[in-house]
User: Fold these one by one.
Assistant:
Number 1:
Amino acid sequence: MRRPIAVFTALLSLVALSAACASGAKKTTAPTTPPASSGRTIIVAAFNFSESQVLANMFADVLDNAGFRASVKTLTTREVVQPALWSGDVDVVPEYTSSLATYLNNHDMGSAAPSVASSDLTKTLSALRAAATRHHLVVLDPSSAANQNAFAVTRAFAEANQLATLSDLARYRGGLTLGGPAECPTRPYCEPGLESTYGITFTSFRTLDAGGPLTKLALKSGLIQVGLVFSSDPGIAAYGLQILSDDKQLQDADVVVPVVNEDVASVRLAGALEGLMKVLTTSDLIQLNASAELQHVDPATVAHDYLAGKALLPST
């Protein structure tokens, strides 16, 4: 039988209230009663890219440390991962707030439905949780670690023109070629948004990839001056690039968040995962991705070393 979400939410609220009341007094002790799911392995799903695989291994490690048995199962895209989570084939997924909110909204309401994701994390999270309840999912508290659209220039170009933000770029009066995926000239977060939100004028657009090596090479070589990248990409530093701050919040807030099938949800499980979310940052993601993608360290090793360094696992 599925555990009612209202009951689980009330439990989480009670734990939060107890912690707040105990601030400055004795340290509270975490519940020791095993969750109903402790008799079986908790399966953490990963998407088929290295960042997700590192995150999934971190989730599994902190769950193991909390007394669960957890394993990682690598799948492919959200179109595969989410149905597996709904059905209980997997139990937990490290997800991204705006991406999942948009996916669930389009799945349930149709692709023409108004967007529920925005740069406002609180509103996006509220919409995500409402959509998640329709699929018997519990969305835990998110991290501050973001993997979202961003725009980069070379460090040399930024220094020469005193650029730190996209608003600074709007004051640049030279020619600007923008590079990105083929859909960029029609997507509101890309060229139209840069023009309408920031007033940036581009002289041309070059079709490349979505934040991949073609875009980074085109920036480094001077073929383009501005490129669409992803905020947690370790290649940004490796290629001598700099992200310009989205100071007018054009992009949706897309931060790492644990999503759990309600059949395995418990205060103990939430506490283990949210403990990790409290320390994980975008800078951490970049370093984790650098280890996995640039240094080719196994994602499980990357995950374990990070958790040990943050004292989230016992020292060995």
Number 2:
Amino acid sequence: MPGNGFRIALAALLCIACRAFAAGDLLIGNVATTTNPQAAQNSANIMLGYQIWFAEVNSQGGIRGRQVKLVNKDDGLVPDKMVALTQELIADPNVIALAGYLNTPGLVELMKRNVLVDGKIAMVAPIGPFNATNFYPVRPGYNDEAERLVQEAAQTQKKRVALVYFNQAFAPGVFKFAEESAKRQGVNVVATAMFETDPAKIDAGIAAAADKVSKAEPDAVIVIAAGIGAFNFVKRFRQTPNGEAQLYTLSPVDSFGLVKVAGLEASRGVVISQAIPYPNYTALAVVREYQKMMKKHAADKPLSFYSLEGFIGAKIVAEALKHAGPNPTREKVIAALNGLKDYDVGDFTVSYTAERRVGSRTVDLTIVGKDGSLFR
């Protein structure tokens, strides 16, 4: 029979296993889908960025002796579910802030319903164009990215441009903005197409959209979509008679996933706008630090824009927790964030005050190279 020491040790292990977090941990709530194929890969990379920096902070003793942990809940990209899960997180007094949310319509609902204001809680680095009370953005908005892509089409003298979008998340609103931007910049839009993301309809919808756009004989196509939908549209469009047209996409299109699903031949030359620094651009201190932490804590994972974005968000969260004092509260975290004016994360600056919260305004362009690598 096992001795008392063994039973005590086993009980301790079981106790640890049955609890995700220890008493006194500083919990950061996150709602981002790990199951919906349109965003699961991006969500996983966002969470990885938070986890590697929090792992580093925790290895150094945490924040004033307390460990910092990310708590993820999966909303499946359903707006009402994001709201409900956020309310669950707010109901937990150990959740001291929110960060890294992904789901544009869900975030819009959080703003409309004043969920963060009522919960007296901050959200750092939501993925999208959000600059409202208690929201502390890192990236410029998707409209900024669309504007830059339309500008690129104009500057490279594309005469016949098509716009394609899926009927989910950020895309319908950005599509309307892109149409308006094209008019302002004198870009001739010869075709528009939408495809649904319902699993029963997505394949047929992508095929119909690709064929419709191809018949318009465009010399450039701006794809406003993400995840498997964007990947498969690129793959299908390349198979059409006019599939050699220049393809532009927004930052939610992960280049690794694009090459994997659409294939190398179809992916070559695709231009992707980026709202976060290039993860191989080591001229920036934050990128050098990110690469170091990836090697230390996630050496088997590739570098990506989304994990870098999560890493930047995690650094902002950790800095706010440090400034919140020995007994941080949600209100103290908000006050600390409002004091991070012109905060340099590492050659990358965000500026937050009570009146104005501004992330980066820079949109870069990258291109998928002949070997599938991404270049700026």
Number 3:
Amino acid sequence: MQNVVSNTQTPKRRNYSAVRIVSFIFKHLVLILYGITCLYPFVWMLGTSLKSQQEALGNPNYVWPKQGFHFEIYAEVWEKLNFFRYFVNSMSVSLACVAGVIILYSMMGFALARINFKGKKLVFYCYVALILVPGLTVQIPLYLNMVALGMSNTFIGLILPMINGAGPFAVFLFRNFFLSMSGDLYEAAKIDGCSVFRIYSQIYLPLALPIIGTIAVMNFIGAWNGIVWPMIILRSRELYTLQMAVMYLDESAFKQWNVLMAGSIFSVVPVILVFILFQKSYIRGLSAGAVKA
């Protein structure tokens, strides 16, 4: 009798393990194909930057150069791009956006999470609903406002709308993260005589480092890669960001794709380094701030 039971259970276990193996292989194949798809544009950009001008125009579909690697293009682009000048501009704008988003919206998220006032949930839902509004639809009103305030062609006029656009998602993450923390911590601090701002700045904000890392990485990359709004608001060449400098690197009738791709490599490397350094904090904070509340 025991032999019959064991014989009937063994095929089921084998079938179950076989399904798990097939499922494992299938999922990893899909992930590998997706990874290759994502990496292909970067590999193509790198390969094109190492081609001669004739080969870049004549054989754009070939990833790697067939007529030798032309590393001298990077030296030419480095001198022509004036990298450090525009790098400082982009870095200043990106860091200012990150600082503004963290300071302003951590306060707002804390208020919506721990301070009781009428209409709190309505304010939160209305504000988060702005995530659904495409940024391009408000470019004209924003530009008119900046001109009326005398902020066109300035870094302030460039930075403030970026901070405003990052608000809804930052508030969503901060508010949910602060709600996930124990309410007894807030009440205990109030009993000890702490002011609301002191509770926020000395207790809650230091504990929110994972979510701060996530929001910092997201907004740094967004501000660094921004191109549409800088093109609208900036006119002076000395105020250009690195992305705009790369875009105007080649203004000839026939595009020198190898030159443009070499400039793009210079502009992409800082973002890649930032993400590599802070990817663990980014993922940890994103999962912590997306909890239901």
Number 4:
Amino acid sequence: MLDIKWIRDNPEDFDRGLARRGLAPLSGEILRLDKRWREAQTAVEQNQAARGKLGQEMVAAKAKGGEAAAALMRQMTESKEKQAFLEAEAAQLRDALDAALAPLPNLPAADVPDGRDSAANKLIREHGTPPKFAFKPLDHAALGEKLGQMDFDRAAKMSGARFVVLSGGLARLERALGQFMLDLHTKEFRYTEISPPLLVRDEAVFGTGQLPKFADDLFRTTTGLWLIPTAEVSLTNLVREEILDEAKLPLRYAALTPCFRSEAGAAGKDTRGMIRQHQFSKVELVSIAHPEVSDDEHEYLTGCAEEVLKRLGLAYRVMLLCTGDMGASARKTYDIEVWLPSQAAYREISSCSNCGDYQARRMQARFKAKDGKGTRFVHTLNGSGLAVGRALIAVMENGQRADGSIAVPEVLRNYMGGAEAIGGVR
């Protein structure tokens, strides 16, 4: 949620920020609603003050007796009815203002490049060298099916498209990847492991910005709860409606969970294999930070996600997303893209975003300053550390051998019972 006071004070900057997101100017419409709400709120306060004065006059009149007390009593009754009307009107106007602000995206940071799509993203850095093969590399689906450990047909029979059944070594490799990532982030990078709910209420999904605009991308149960599209929802909402101690910031949370996405906006994209699934595992990183250090925290979080790929020995690059390619809740996002030999291209494996106070305002997540003077909204950050399924794909494709076996990265071998390969000699 954007700050209405900031919009009030900076209408031109607000419209420029919307224009960078490809949206028409809205300051006039928003500020007209805001003015009506503030006028209605003033009327509420003025009538309340008048009621207080009437009450004092009535006490004095009752002491004297006579008709004056009865007249004042009638005025009090009328004032009470008027107060209820004014409060209802002010509440309706506030709801209308909030409804106008709720679907608006976060405004991009100054250093985010302008652009309509991924073509305008900016390369920040590259790490590692893509492998060269003496044979034509297969994609992960062909590799998995050749091993007899990746089955899309059986998954489709029970669940439909965009599901997979993993078995044997690949199932264990997926589990190993998730455990390795979680151990790395909690033991070395000071994240606290969380096992959060996978089903959440409307207000939780609204808090992180998926509602109201992106409901079609989610799965909802018949009881009205939402399956989380990412553990970002659960982890960020841990501080919902909280007033935190400034001295304890940043709070860093990590979780390995299943994630569920309808992929409504991805029809026809990545239909083969595991790139885009309705159900997948992911290690999510969330930071709750002081506003003055959230940019530094963004770099730290991104570095933690990168370290996973470094230790797996995978080539990757980091891209700064442009305004048109960035998620709605983010003010700045780095995408980490891993090399996939079968596509001879880098593909996204993590998005690391600084959301500023956008989500915090929706969740009323604040901290109390050390000097005790009031509260401020925290800044929230999130990133994949990493998407486990896509990491599995990258390990398979980059580690494939001519005989169809797959080399297990050294850092995963303790999680794999010492195995150095899947489908080959131990």
